[in-house]
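Hi support team,

I've been running sequence recovery on a batch of backbones for a student project. Most finish fine, but this one hangs at about 90% for roughly twenty minutes before it completes. I'm not sure whether the input is malformed or the queue is just slow. I've pasted the structure tokens below so you can try to reproduce it. Let me know if you need the job ID as well.

Thanks,
M.K.
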């Protein structure tokens, strides 16, 4: 069963012998040994609170200032996790390679791309109030370029490894598999923010259409994987308790694709000819409304599964960060639809989802800080309990 890094141990291959210099290296900075790529989820979940709050189609006193503080926190978190992951690769290369070859962990490399993109987008939309538009744009360009490159590589390399090295068993499909496939969709939506800053002409049109290409790449890949995830649920029952929040990851491509088509529609005028710009605007509504409807259906289903898991004793794990970024994409998606349709119902939907997002972020953040201080989240993971048959 594919699970999050904190719920399984990664052991050396049978018969493997650790060389003395590797043993000495592993003893240095032991707290970094189990810092996997899933920790970027905390960065993503924090950055989306800032950018989603700025995107709300309502004027709430003090919200902009609060979003600015959260943006600054996300930037600090990004720097901290990047440093921790660099230390992980430097001092614990055996574990880092084991993570890359583990089908439960490798998909989280998509989180690195999304963390870079999320902080970059929040810098341009919120951080510009502090650092200025010019500096914010420069930061966003760097993070967008790096995040897009990492995301496109992950979207190819992780599925390749799953085919030739991981070879997961039938019935083990996990929502985690969506992570490297969603990253190009995040690039599509964040790239739309940069389109107006590109000089008019071929460059601006190329960036816009490249974003639509990444939208299609991610969408079609998601349509391949999502049926596998639902088939696994139907035929094998609920996910293990610690992995249950990962069901919310399905909201990521749904909400992010809705966000992307709406932001790209905003950027289309001035980038492409008038008829195409109008068509992109119509497509944003024609695509976004049905997909948001399915997102709400999945939100209720995943919420019911999470409540069931809570009753059965689900404790805190890093999987709880799945309650944040995917929901945040639904906030920005609903806000974009509200902007293009003028419907008050969509405005209130965005507000309601944002309230849930902030609550989930506060809980996940507080529990993560507690786990880091106590050492529980940086300790070696324990093997999962045996999976039993579904009883209800």
């Amino acid at each position: 069963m594919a699970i999050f890094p904190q719920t399984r141990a990664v052991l050396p291959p049978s018969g493997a012998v650790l060389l003395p210099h590797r043993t000495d290296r592993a003893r240095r900075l032991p707290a970094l040994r189990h810092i996997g790529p899933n920790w970027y989820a905390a960065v993503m979940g924090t950055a989306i609170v800032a950018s989603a709050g700025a995107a709300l189609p309502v004027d709430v006193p003090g919200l902009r200032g609060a979003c600015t503080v959260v943006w600054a926190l996300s930037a600090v978190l990004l720097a901290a996790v990047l440093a921790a992951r660099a230390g992980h690769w430097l001092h614990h290369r055996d574990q880092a390679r084991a993570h890359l070859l583990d089908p439960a962990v490798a998909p989280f490399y998509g989180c690195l791309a999304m963390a870079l993109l999320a902080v970059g987008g929040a810098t341009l939309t919120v951080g510009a109030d502090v650092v200025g538009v010019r500096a914010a744009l420069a930061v966003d360009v760097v993070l967008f370029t790096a995040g897009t490159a990492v995301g496109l590589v992950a979207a190819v390399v992780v599925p390749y490894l799953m085919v030739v090295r991981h070879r997961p068993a039938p019935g083990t499909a996990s929502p985690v598999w969506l992570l490297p496939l969603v990253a190009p969709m995040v690039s599509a939506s964040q790239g739309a923010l940069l389109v107006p800053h590109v000089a008019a002409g071929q460059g601006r049109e190329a960036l816009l259409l490249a974003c639509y290409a990444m939208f299609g790449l991610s969408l079609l890949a998601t349509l391949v994987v999502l049926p596998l995830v639902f088939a696994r649920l139907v035929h094998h029952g609920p996910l293990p308790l610690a992995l249950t929040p990962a069901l919310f990851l399905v909201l990521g491509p749904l909400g992010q694709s809705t966000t992307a088509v709406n932001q790209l529609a905003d950027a289309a005028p001035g980038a492409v000819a008038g008829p195409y710009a109008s068509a992109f605007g119509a497509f944003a509504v024609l695509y976004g409304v049905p997909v948001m409807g399915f997102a709400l259906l999945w939100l209720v289903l995943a919420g019911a599964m999470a409540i069931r898991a809570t009753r059965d004793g689900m404790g805190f794990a890093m999987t709880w960060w799945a309650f944040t970024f995917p929901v945040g994409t639904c906030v920005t998606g609903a806000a974009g639809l509200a902007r293009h349709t003028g419907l008050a119902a969509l405005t209130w939907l965005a507000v309601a989802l944002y309230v849930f997002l902030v609550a989930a972020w506060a809980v996940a953040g507080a529990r993560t800080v507690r786990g880091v201080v106590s050492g529980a989240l940086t300790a070696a993971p324990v093997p999962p309990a045996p999976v039993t048959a579904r009883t209800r």
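--
Follow-up from support: It reproduced on our side and the slowdown came from queue contention, not your input. The radius of gyration is 21 Å. No action needed from you.
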